[in-house]
Fold this protein.
Amino acid sequence: MTAVAMTTETAGFPARLKDALAAAALTVLLCVPIVLLHAEADIDGVLHPIARPWPVAILAFLAFFGRLAVANFAEAGKKERVVKPTETSGWRAVVAKRLPGVGLAALFVYPMALLLILGSGRSLKWVDSYGIQILIYVMLGWGLNIVVGLAGLLDLGYVAFYAVGAYAYALLATTFGLSFWICLPLAGILAALWGVMLGFPVLRLRGDYLAIVTLAFGEIIRTILVNWVDFTGGGAGIASIPKITFFGLRFADTPHGFDKFFGMEYSPLHGKMFLYYVILCLALITNLVSIRLRRLPIGRAWEALREDEIACRSLGVNTTNTKLTAFALGAFFGGLAGSFFAVRQGFISPESFTFNESATILAIVVLGGMGSQIGVALAAVFLIGGFELLRELDFLRAVMSDGTGVVVICLGTFIFGVVRERRVAAQITLALIVAILALRFFSLLPVAIVSPFGMPGFDPAQYRGLLFGLAMVVMMVVRPRGFVSTRVPSIFLKERKAVSGDLVKEGHG
Amino acid sequence: MDNFLQQLINGLTLGSIYGLIAIGYTMVYGIIGMINFAHGDVFMLSAFIALLIFLVLSQVVGIASLPVAFVIVLIGGMILTSVWNWTIERIAYRPLRGSFRLAPLISAIGMSTFLSNFVQVVQGPRNKPVPPMFTNIIHVGGASHQIVLQYRQIVIVVVTAVLLAGFWWLVQKTALGRAQRACEQDSKMAALMGVDVDRTISITFVIGASLAAVAGTLYMMYYGVVNFADGFLPGVKAFTAAVLGGIGSIPGAVLGGLTIGLIEVFWAAYFSSDYKDVAAFSILAITLIFMPSGLLGRPEIEKV
């Protein structure tokens, strides 16, 4: 039971080897039978165990050298470990300073630039499934960040407010024919009301209990949406939700549509671009409100509450009300995002509001660095956009399907495990990857060598949840403060200094 | 009346399974004060492990006797699931002692997402049907009544009872159990008295996992189908059971499990089966709000 999995002391070579062997043996033990055997149904639906030794061998190999690599990294990390003051010059600081401004400008220019470069037909996808999709998650991340990052309340049912917003718009629009612009604030207010209703009894609870109760609440809402068929349409959802309008002009190919009114030729891209700017503005409002509120007494009370609830109470902060405002505000923005989601999709069903969605939003907030606005936005871009992008890469699919990809991953791990110098290891790995991929690209690689490692029908989307979960664990273990771990204090003496997240007690703030 | 008795039997069966899972939640909470969010998924994983061992035994090894195969599946499942949970604790939770308040819970949520997706990737997203086991039934109370007692229900209740007795002995009478209880009361003091706290915590996870593995095997046998998403709902319900019984209290977890099983079954029988999950979730919320120490738990005192 001694040093097997996570020891970080510098150890001699034999000890390390033993450690790595133990890791490999443990991996084999874990993989028997869940990976080694695959329960495959035959035509009659009867299951048969099919043995798959290769994946187990690969995982054991990766565990062995991965463990060595972790030991190497830990050693290197120890050597470099000096408490670094937060840099005020150098490229990091420049990037950190310029990023928000440049990013903002890029976001506004993005659809126009696409239109110019790709033309109207091909840029549709980039505006829709990248731009709008990511921005929805940015907004949700920022909304949840008020609750989790600023007030320190772990909300596992955030998607419930998203659902309330979406159904509020869908029902108001299909039943009473109200326009999106009237429903949008209504949806937000309704969601906030739900937030208050739920929060009032619940917010007295301790942090982890609160998390579970919000999870339960999210599931209750979803179950009701599925089962109350008369009101919500049940599992079939609500279809043909009215589309968005521009001062009453519809984005459609009609004489009174947006395009004809302005004397342009009809293009579906115009509607999408409008949606893009709407969600961009909504997200920026969320951001602005949270940045501003942080400096008001209420925002300071949130952060103080997150750091130490008992101290707050003894200083006379009304903890329930303070938590309630954060909860309601987070719910409000969730509701806005939900109603935008409904107008964008034109169709909603309870399927879109499962716990997985809550977990994804939480992963964005956690990975971005709880409490950091820019970190959350970056995490949303990487996590949501990254996976969308991976799905597009046919080359990746091909490489993973015929086994080259697995070979490259194994070789990389091998090199990082064997070569103690990180820089050298990185260089060798990079060179090897380029060489192998080039060989593969020009079809010079003998297929017979790599084919056992093939993953036919590889789809990165399958691995999304797996990697999200793993990333959350690794993040908590390695870097609990998130990607962006510096914080700007909301109150300061003489000069404003960025504070490393390491100096903050609750790890985010 | 017949219907009532029938539902009572069904409820106790289901409640036994919840009780077994709930012990894992309650023990971990008792010792490190963390909600082991991934426990439901460990339970699901164990059901898959049991299924695979069973398939190998019946098709490759060719064991004809069902009870023998069943016992091997139970023991094999317990061992392998324990290894899993031990590893999870080592990788995802142990490095987080002393981290900020919500870190272990977030890590556990990540682990839960990882496990269910991992099983989906390696075993596929479809339901896995299991050949029916212990299909005999007994008509209780003669031909005039319509109460049916299935053999598998008897198996579930008997296995649960035997295991709980063994577990009770382990916690109350052995040195291991003493160490476990000591860490639960005050881990710092226990460490000063020579108890290896880390080891005790690991053992707690191992025990929790092996009970979850039994629950997983019984679940697979009872429902005849397993799916990668099966960890979530039973997990939350078992957690509800642990909370209802008083989190940290082991008899409370069993009592809570039986109560939740009964409530769920009766709710489905007399009100609406669509909303049976809502019933469980509402109990969770109501208990936490109005009776946070549960039926048998100690009230929590916050020290400054």
Chain B touches chain A through 73 residues (CB under 8 Å). Residues 11 and 262 of chain B are 4 Å apart (CA to CA). The mean pLDDT of chain B is 87. The domain at 2-290 of chain B is CATH 1.10.3470 (ABC transporter involved in vitamin B12 uptake, BtuC).
